[in-house]
Amino acid sequence: RVADNTCNLVDLPSINFASGTSNLSAENKALLASIATSLRSNPNCKVVVCGSSAKSKSGQALGQKRVDAIVKYLVEAQGISADRVVAQYACSDGDPSVVEIRAEQR
Which terminus of the chain has a lower count of CB atoms within 10 Å, N or C? Predict the structure, then answer.
């Protein structure tokens, strides 16, 4: 029997932040807890935490803080191995208050 190394995580939620903040709301923490549960059930998956590129230096710094807050929560609060959570700071041109979470093969 060949091991199944596919990643079956789909439709992961985006995390929305209040304007000007990198604080995780209770709703965000609940979404991240559900992602962590899915990761535990799918050991061949890792996730990419994908921030939007910002035009200003302050916007870029805030975007990095938002990505870092998500990574920190998944690793420290939910116990997901750090090698399964990849931070990317400017991988989309979308709304800078939204951070996308994408599945990736491990």
Answer: N
